[in-house]
From TrEMBL:
It comes from the Bacteria. Transmembrane segments: none annotated. The gene is ilvE. This is Branched-chain-amino-acid aminotransferase. Keywords: Amino-acid biosynthesis, Aminotransferase, Branched-chain amino acid biosynthesis, Pyridoxal phosphate, Transferase. It comes from Convivina praedatoris. It catalyses: L-isoleucine + 2-oxoglutarate = (S)-3-methyl-2-oxopentanoate + L-glutamate; L-valine + 2-oxoglutarate = 3-methyl-2-oxobutanoate + L-glutamate; L-leucine + 2-oxoglutarate = 4-methyl-2-oxopentanoate + L-glutamate. The keyword Amino-acid biosynthesis applies. GO terms for molecular function: branched-chain-amino-acid transaminase activity. Belongs to the class-IV pyridoxal-phosphate-dependent aminotransferase family. Its cofactor is pyridoxal 5'-phosphate. InterPro entries: Aminotrans_IV, Aminotrans_IV_CS, Aminotransferase-like, B_amino_transII, BCAT-like_C, BCAT-like_N, BCAT_family.
Length: 346
């Protein structure tokens, strides 16, 4: 397979999408005979995967997603990488995969950013370097049981600002699909959850919606997630509510916004949110690494459309939360202790 590596001069930093680009370096580590090796940078974007790997056949395949942000002073920040390090270990536990050490995880992120530092987009463009850590089961396994060998990798690709001009509300729709079962793998960032979400997502897009509102898999009554983002609603009496459920992904952005909402005087709460109780909300949004905060203009359920703050304009709380979160990530404002991690570039 030929690999044409990207050059920094290939990019218009103000006009980037969410696409893969083959950067010069990625980090890889290998697990064999019960331990991880030291790992290191590699140049090839093609992985050595055994034809009988559990990562190919039985879904032993987990990942993470986070970003590196260029600061005004030229430095680069990671945002709460310890949360991703912990989450991929919990995903590994659920799928009986080898846990990758948390310190080595953060070091791997730093190495990849440093080695590809010319691809971290400039401050002020809203673009970032997206980091994709992942782990797969490898080696020959025919029966359904966990692999003895694993590969862990972190690759990077520059991605554009989600919003090119202001926060734009989008429309969501419920349907009858589930992305994860009660007691299943919804809390893990497991590849299979995303395979399960592709058909519902396609049908929602074809019907003109930006994505699906997943309802809880037992009752189909309570809000779970919005595509691949968590949901929040801000009530008319100043509460910041987000669903509590065993089948949703514990989002780093969600836990960050729960803290920032409280800082701003909102009352944060993880709780059950019925799809039939949307009238309580003055504003609603989706939150996640890719979308940051995305205002939800409307949710259509059983053919009936519920509009939140506005279908065309972002609400004041949503805008305030977005501004505060991105100011911390970009290093413009200090955030809570330990949220921002500097990447040494020399
Ligand atoms: C299903 C799902 N929910 C929520 C999120 C948001 O999580 P985070 O804020 O950690 O990116 C993601 C993205 O990672 C996701 O894939």
């Amino acid at each position: 397979m030929t690999e044409k590596k990207a050059q920094p001069s290939d990019f218009d930093w103000n006009d980037l999408g969410f696409e893969y680009h083959d950067l010069p370096y990625r980090y890889r580590a290998y697990y064999k005979a019960g331990q991880w090796n030291a790992g290191g940078l590699e140049t090839s974007s093609t992985l050595p995967v055994h034809e009988a790997a559990t990562g190919l056949h039985y879904g032993q395949n987990i990942f993470e997603g986070l970003k590196a942000y260029r600061r005004k002073d030229g430095g680069v920040n990671l945002f709460r990488p310890d949360m991703n390090a912990a989450r991929i270990q919990r995903s590994a536990d659920r799928l009986l995969m080898a846990e990758f050490p948390q310190e080595q995880f953060v070091e791997a992120l730093k190495e990849v950013v440093k080695a590809n530092q010319d691809f971290v987009p400039p401050y002020g463009t809203g673009a970032t370097l997206y980091l994709r850590p992942f782990e797969i089961g490898n080696g020959p396994v025919v029966g359904v049981h966990p692999a003895d060998e694993y590969v862990f990798e972190v690759y990077a690709t520059p991605v554009g600002a989600y919003y090119k001009g202001g926060l734009t509300p989008t429309a969501y729709v419920t349907n009858s699909y589930d992305r994860a079962a009660h007691g299943g793998t919804g809390q893990a960032k497991a590849g299979g959850n995303y395979a399960a979400s592709m058909l519902p997502g396609k049908e929602a897009h074809e019907a003109g919606y930006s994505d699906v509102v997943y309802l809880d898999p037992r009752l189909h009554e309570n809000i779970e997630e919005l595509g691949s983002a968590n949901f929040f609603g801000i009530t008319k009496d100043g509460r910041f509510l987000t669903p509590k459920s065993p089948s949703i992904l514990p989002s780093v952005t969600k836990y960050s916004l729960l803290a920032l909402a409280e800082e701003m005087g909102l009352q944060p709460e993880e709780t059950t949110i019925s799809i039939n109780d949307l009238d309580q909300f003055a504003e609603a949004g989706a939150m996640g690494t890719a979308a940051v905060i995305s205002p939800v203009g409307s949710i259509t359920h059983n053919g009936k459309k519920h509009v939140f703050y506005s279908e065309t304009e972002v609400g004041p709380w949503t805008q305030k939360l977005y501004d505060r979160l991105t100011a911390i990530q970009n290093g413009d404002e200090p955030g809570p202790e330990g949220w921002v991690v500097d990447v040494p570039l020399k």
